[in-house]
Design goal:
about 280 residues; alpha/beta; nine-stranded mixed β-sheet; four-stranded mixed β-sheet; 9 helices; 13 strands; globular; binds alpha-D-ribofuranose
Length: about 280
């Protein structure tokens, strides 16, 4: 089988994760949390997830010229992701995500975009041939520039939810959203030309085109520790499986299993599963 070649244009963050008994309500303070820091960012997570699942991945991103960047890029480098498309911005810090995780594994995330927000389209290097994955944690103009360059399969993870131009909806071969994002985009998702995957947490995922249900899948039962990065794993896994020409139902099952495995360990990138782990649980 040919190894899929994927460019990921997106964010890199350093995640500061406070794990507490419960998540705070607005205005509430929760004490007694344990703090950890892990590499994260939707773009970086999806890049490393795809690489661990068997693709050859190059990441295009911006980090600050600071020590946090080294920490944020460490697992990507160790995992074999090509980082020649990652530039250091002398004027903005590395992106940071403040993440609260409850004992039930649920999370709340606040992102300080830093260099991700300053990733201008005119600084995007030429993309190599192959597939493209983008999310919405970098400027929309940069996503548009990447998609305009791409001649291959395009996956758009429309997260965090934002207004996007119709042209992007029509260019994407695959759109991935969670239930909250699906509610935000509403009927627009039915107008998309390509496949639309909606993740449903522990209930699995559905794959549609033009509103018509094509496949649904359930994840294996796992002990949830931290859901951070599970959606990113699903995006990467579904893209890899479709690029491998797996049947739609098989591809969705593969992506659900990979996403479920990512919930069984703490942190975004430390939890991303290897291909062998996904195949073992299927
Ligand atoms: O999708 C999870 C990611 O969202 C975290 O790693 C955090 O950095 C935020 O970008």
């Amino acid at each position: 089988m040919t190894r899929p070649s994927i460019s990921v244009v997106g964010s890199v963050n350093l995640d500061f994760v406070a794990t507490a008994a419960t998540l705070p309500a607005p205005g509430e303070t929760v004490t007694g949390a344990i703090l950890a820091r892990h590499p994260g960012g939707k773009g970086a997570n999806q890049a490393l997830a795809a690489q661990r699942l068997g693709a050859s991945v190059r990441l295009f991103a911006r980090v600050g010229d600071d020590a946090m960047a080294d920490e944020a890029l460490a697992l990507l480098g160790a995992g074999g992701v090509d980082l020649t498309g990652v530039a250091r911005d002398p004027n903005a810090p590395t992106g940071v995500a403040l993440i609260a995780v409850s004992q039930a594994g649920e999370n709340q995330i606040v992102v300080a975009s830093g260099a991700n927000g300053a990733f201008a389209p005119d600084t995007l290097a030429p993309l190599p041939a192959g597939a493209l994955i983008c999310q919405l944690e970098v400027p929309l103009t940069t996503v548009e520039a990447a998609v305009a360059q791409s001649q291959g399969f395009v996956c758009l993870n429309l997260a965090p939810a934002a207004d996007i131009p119709e042209a992007l909806l029509q260019r994407a071969d695959l759109i991935v959203v969670n239930e909250t994002e699906a509610a935000f985009y509403g009927e627009n998702l039915h107008r998309a030309r390509g496949l639309v995957a909606v993740t449903l947490g522990a209930r699995g995922a559905e794959l549609r085109r033009g509103g018509e249900l094509l496949a649904s899948a359930k994840p294996p039962s796992v002990q949830v520790v931290d859901t951070t990065g599970a959606g990113d794993t699903f995006v990467a896994a579904l893209t890899v499986a479709l690029l491998e020409d797996q049947a739609l139902g098989d591809a969705l099952t593969f992506a659900c299993a990979a996403g479920a495995l990512a919930t069984t360990r703490a942190g975004a990138q430390p939890s991303l599963p290897l291909r062998s782990e996904v195949e073992a649980i299927l």
